[in-house]
Amino acid sequence: MLTTLKAEWFGNIRADILAGLVVALALIPEAIAFSIIAGVDPRVGLYASFCIAVVIAFVGGRPGMISAATGAMALVMVTLVKEHGLDYLLAATLLTGVLQIIAGALRLGELMRFVSRSVVTGFVNALAILIFMAQLPELTNVTWHVYAMTGAGLGIIYLFPRIPVIGRNIPSPLVCIIIMTAISMLLGLDIRTVGDMGDLPDTLPVFLLPDIPLTLETLWIIAPYSLGLAVVGLLESLMTATIVDDLTDTSSDRNRECKGQGVANVVAGLFGGMAGCAMIGQSIINVKSGGRGRLSTFTAGAVLIVMVVFLDDWLRQIPMAALVAVMIMVSIGTFSWASIRDLRRNPLSSNIVMVVTVGVVVATHNLAIGVFVGVLLASLFFAHKIGRFMVVKVDELDGEGCRRYRVVGQVFFASSEQFVAAFDFREAVERVVIDLSQAHFWDLTSVAALDKVVIKFRREGADVDIRGMNEATETVVDKFGIHNDPDEVEKLMGGH
Amino acid sequence: MDTIFACIDGSTVNNAVCDAARWASARLAKPVTLLHTLEKQAQHGADTLSGNIGLGAQSELLEQMAQLDQERARLAMQYGKALLETAVARFGDDHSEPVNSLLRHGDFVETLVELESQARLMVVGKVGLDHGGQFSAVGSHIETLLRQVHTSVLIANQLFQPPQNFMLAYDGRDTADRSLARIIDGGLLAGLPCHLVMVKSGDSAREEKLQAAEHRLTEAGFEVTSALLEGPIFESLQSYQQAHEVSMLVMGAFAHSKVRQLFLGSNTIRMLENATLPLIVLR
Question: Which of A131, A379, A409, B160 meets the CB 3.0–4.6 Å disulfide criterion with A390?
């Protein structure tokens, strides 16, 4: 216990601190940009990023993952902020945290296995598209200076790392921001800067309870948003955890991560920050920079607040164009380009799930709805596919004029209609044998379908004899408790 | 329950571990499996602090890191194989029991815990690779190992000579009686002269059990010298073993509860740290 704690915190000190620094520098523009997306002062996002990063470093279930104020969450809260203001957002953040803690206690992290790969890809792509779209207001109705600066900024971000030695050791987004700020100040350009977007922090965050009426009405206002925030936050956090797991070839504690996200959001809400979650882009940057332990996340949060508080006069001067360039980089880095390449190779159903997930998110600006639709669609496709694993074989009439049907495969809601249609009720026979010994009945729909078949045959004057009923319906009960016993599964699935 | 697992890690005690395993294997007539584990090193990623992510950043980084890991793991595997071959060769052609080697990925203690159901005895070196030349330090894994496995463990020191006798530290507690039973049933120490040593603790009921213990051992065919020492536990045992040319120590593990150990330290750990002789922790 003590040794794991030590390894998770101090197993990798030098690299963790360096990576934490790089991440902190990248977090500042993002936190500002996401605050602007949500429609609140940059202060709210910066406080949130500090609180969430520092708290999750202690309570998270995935060392080395970066959590802070995120675009996915910001998008969900836009309407709430617009209609009810900041205090309701802070209250919603608190409730989000509580919901996430409950989710963690109920071990809902395990539900992630129902979210298929195509849905995850769709989520990630939709997120990238939304982050990109959120930059567009900064690029419309502006002078050519803004376009030039954004273009130059992107050039710096992608070309600077090609310079030998210093390119590998100085974060290029930081270089972009410094150069662009310097140019804008030197030339005295009249373009929008971070200072125009609202208050920046000049002190450490202070504890405050949101100023809202504690009524049921308030709860009804914030509950839908909190639920959406909780779902989106957990989804993105667990997805990011999987990505970090894959990159570092280690494993994470999902339920602890759920509870940790909850605690972090509660703290953020109490210190004037907006709800946040794990960040895919930042976590990749952290791993790429060598960050592996909890110390990297902690450093990112701590350095962020120190820099923000002491450098607020300079932060004010950063032109929005430079931020836009950084955010375009984040959106490009988040987008899964492989998913576009693989469109031709992947099955159509997976592509539809992915594209629909993206489409729904972009249309509703709510990642939770997109994931819900994606999961639903994926399940339907799956049910449809499995439903085709069912045939009813018809044997030759035997000497006594008895017709024998043999049912093979999976009978359930998706295949029961096909099951009923497979019998020839028009045939005038006196005796029908239905052999179910190679079939599996999964639900009540399939049992009802069988009843229907039997009654139909009886009405046509036939006696019906069902064989292998008990074995076939073993799968109807909800609890098998055999998934760990290969012999039992073999017995059940291999015919009786 | 039939194999002697000997852990090879490339440190200076490897030869002693092999010799101890060879001795135990011959006495118990059980096969030996030499085990080397490849522990995962924390990788440092692509080690760029450029802080930017471009097209397909995730898949590109995954590919880079997987490649680094692959290269490292290949080297470690080659090294591990060479170590095991050398170790197998040390057993020589005249060793009558089969000697196998096993190379596994993972943490050394976790691997041993997994293999425990097949183990009769585990042989480990006192100084792990991490400690370099500091001989007084207990191999970083040994304490964790002793807490997690329920198999007897033979801890080899710098040199291993087949022991001529052994000393059992007996305190009259239940754990000590269980150790006694293990010695009698086990066969590893059969026929070796035994120094049955107890340190006075002021609890006369326990001290009376010393004679009973001596009697049990004598009945089982051991040649027993028993002694009741006075003074602090650790120092008395230390001076006794020097005075009587003891060549192997035998003890039960961890008489105290975990919480008490945390504050008091345990005699087991102290004995381990200071032992210059091979030591068997019985379970």
Answer: A409
